[in-house]
Amino acid sequence: MDLSVKLIQPFAGWRPRPGLASRVAAPPYDVLSSAEARALVQDNADSFLHVSKAEINLDPALPGDDALVYQTARERFEQMCRDGRLQRDATPCLYIYRLVMGDRSQTGVVAAASVAAYRADRIRKHELTRPDKENDRTRLAATLSAHTGPVFLIYRQTVELDALVAQIQRGAVPDESFLADDGVEHSLWVVRNPQQIERLVALFDRQPRLYVADGHHRSAAAARVCAERPSADRFLAVLFPDDQVKILDYNRVVRDLNGLTPAAFLQAVGERFTLTRSAGAVVPDRRHLFGLYVERQWYRLELEAGRIDEADVVGRLDVSLLDRHLLQPVLGIFDVRRDQRIDFVGGIRGMAALESLVDSGKMAVAFSLFPTQLEELLAVADADQIMPPKSTWFEPKLRDGLVIQTFE
């Protein structure tokens, strides 16, 4: 690990002109299907989805990786810059970004993070990427000469950083603040003061490492672009302290019972777990407790402690235990990254979403899980290991197009 590499730097960001952020800033490209994105922007020509998911401007029959998609993204982005919907800060800045969701808030620093630090594992990963998604974000960044969707990074909380971030906000009106249609409040402060910028950069440089929470494909794409264009040696990121970050459950649904009848399926599950009928939805409230929903009935699943190796930082994760003791031996799902029989449902959608998928016949069975804990994620990353796919769901989601980083 090269500790001489500066973790972050300021940059002259492109931002929506005053008063337009609520229309421009958009959900991340990968939480919406193309059809959902088309519906969302039907009456909003300013939405950044016209850039980040440019296929919504084209014939739905066109492949999502067609060259015209990336050409259209560039045309839309350049038009927004030309007509002033996006305006560039005159000097390199850092930005304070606060999100408020219900009774929770998290405040991060928007910065240009080091590709060299990412390559040297000072910015740590915990997930494998899918080639198709990595290729897509690489082509988009290279075509736009810009990083438009921020990578969500976590750092170990420190008193000094807490105090400085609070001081910058104290008494200052946000440069932008709006309530998104999902009820999340987004606020942005531009940090132009050279002394504050220098202090933030120095304090972050004391961090031995950062962690990718969300944005593995975007950060991997940035490293690939930099390999071809060395001047693109930074990528757009928002850095949050670990004590403000919340991970929600990431649940599983499966299309069939692998040729088993419901009774035979439950019998096979009961040979590996303690299986108990439940009068209502099972929302696991601790590790190693699972919910199972099949044929309009919920069950509690508990795994015997003897089957769990707590010294194995990956194997002890609930997502790993479900894979090893149920999805593989009972349902025959051995590669959750590629098997089309399994899908994943973010906990923000609740247990009703799982019930609806099964009751409609789209899925045969659903599993609810206790959320992966942040310390579990950090332990996996520190051990230089990889978590199973779809282990974490972070809320609230960062908005694309609120601050954009361009490069030569």
Descriptive overview:
The protein is an alpha+beta fold. The protein folds into two domains: 8-245 and 397-406, no CATH class; 250-370, 2-Layer Sandwich (Conserved hypothetical protein from pyrococcus furiosus pfu- 392566-001, domain 2). It has 13 helices and 21 strands. It has helices at residues 21-24, 34-40, 49-52, 67-82, 115-119, 131-144, 159-169, 194-205, 216-228, 262-270, 318-327, 350-359, 374-382, and strands spanning 8-9, 14-16, 86-88, 94-101, 104-114, 123-124, 146-147, 151-155, 176-179, 185-191, 210-214, 234-241, 247-248, 250-254, 273-278, 289-294, 297-303, 342-346, 365-369, 393-394, 405-406. Strands 1, 4, 5, 6, 8, 9, 10, 11 and 12 form a nine-stranded mixed β-sheet that branches. Strands 15-17-16-19-14-18 form a six-stranded antiparallel β-sheet, sandwiched between helices. The chain has a two-stranded antiparallel ribbon with strand order 2-3. A hairpin with a 5-residue loop joins strand 9 and strand 10. Helix 4 (67-82) packs parallel to helix 6, helix 6 (131-144) packs across helix 9 (216-228) and helix 7 packs antiparallel against helix 8 (194-205). The longest helix is centred in the first third of the chain and has 16 residues, at 67-82. The mean pLDDT is 95.
